Amino acid sequence: MDKPKSNVAQQIAEVAKAFEQERTGHRPKSVTVVLSDDALVITLHGALSEAEKVLSRDPDGAAKVQEFHQQLFASAAGTLRTEIEHITGVKVREATAEIEPNSGTVIKAFASGTVVQVYLLAANVETDVWSNDRPSGQGQVAT
Description:
Layout: H1 5-24, E1 30-36, E2 39-45, H2 50-55, H3 59-88, E3 96-100, E4 105-110, E5 138-142
Antiparallel strand pairs: 1-2, 1-5, 2-4, 3-4
């Protein structure tokens, strides 16, 4: 992989936005891509439509929205996998999607035999609080 990490992350973010637009008709407000060793996590912020947000106010509706997006991802993720493999030069072994209906956030995790834990914080962490001294092999980008 001879491309800079930020360039690769930005490319993946753009592909994820286009994938979501094509798949659901709704473009996310922003995308965050985080790579750590062999785990790639793509978070789509503001990815739910207004109708899905309204439906998600009820627990049963939220479960239906979550199930719908998981099934849609499972049936259509091949295209995104192929794009990620093309950009990174590394095969995707596993993929999953989780939806947080209350916030409208969709998380796509691509991992290889690892457990990925994702924590959605109630607010942004200030840049000066977040250390820039991450170990090598870790990177992030938000678009």
